[in-house]
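From the shared-data thread, chain only:
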Amino acid sequence: MLKDRSIICFAGEDWWYHHPHSKNHIMKRLARENRVMFINSISMGLPNVRSADFFAKIRRKLKSMAKFVRRSPEGIVVVTPVVTPFFGSAAGRAVNRVLLVAQLRILMLIYGFGRTVLWIAIPTAKDVVGRLSEDVLVYQVSDKYEANTMDHATKQGLIKALHEELLDRADIVYYSGKKLFEEATNHHEKSHLLEQAVDFEHFASTTAKTDHVVPDDIASIPKPVLGYFGQVDSWLIDQKLVRYVSEKRPDWHWVFIGLKARPLDVEELPNVRHLGSKNYADLPAYASHFDVCVLPWVTDNEFVNYGSAIKVREYMATGKPVVITPLYEYERFDGPLRIARSYDHFIELVESALAEDDPAARAARQALVRDKTWDVRTEQVSDEIERILSA
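Structure, as tokens:
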């Protein structure tokens, strides 16, 4: 295991308000033996000013910036650096490079960071490469970055150019999804598939424990409950599917848990509830009230189609029945997972899930992810980084 190293991670998400992503889980484990600095998402630019999410995203980021530097319970130095949102221009990136490097060099001195392992998971962090005393550059490709036209208005060509330069300069390239990895056309000698994993014991407690106290805000919702936790954005959730199923099965109750920039249109329906964002530690207690775990993502969005949705593995670890819309990442699990090919098929699969009374089916779902833990993934990256350092 990597020990006594200084690691700086530029994440594509925010420690304080996003559902924990792979970087969050891996850095927590590396922090047991190393100094770790986690840089909250510097973004890829603002969404279009006409976007309904524009002001909500600004408010959220300003609240995170107000924390600036904090220590997490794991001892990680979590930083929301002061930068401008103008990554779409050369001048804006130049200003941000100066701001980022100045802030981080000061923090490295304060917290005793020496030569670093620099881990980047967002293309706009490219401009700090070579300026933070790194011995190893790790580039984690978590998404089809240039296909994301929903969260920002930065030109796709620029994002792709930053991405390709990082591919060239990295010592190790990790792909978080099978589709991303299989379609990579170069740098095979340094590229690796870093599949998503799961905090298995945490989510298995959903059905293993009998002493969960179900939170009041979900306990009052009648069953059956179709439950979802994670990102709740209007461009991500297939609201036509939710509306169709809600109208066909008005006695089924949808529960969404997670961060959103603005309300979903389907929240107007009497059997659809959004309970807000919840602490990661409390998710098993909420999931214990789910009858079926669902992933009703859109299927006609290129960015979404490359997703590898950690929550699906978390759902499987609970042992509860799982119904999802098609994702390339999970097609190989069709069977233990129920994958809906149409709106009516979704209803059919939920009905079969509600009728399921088979401990073997629960065990089969859990067996698929039992050994695919974040501890295993951390050992993998630790060994590969050590190999580069020793070389």
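The chain has a mean pLDDT of 92.
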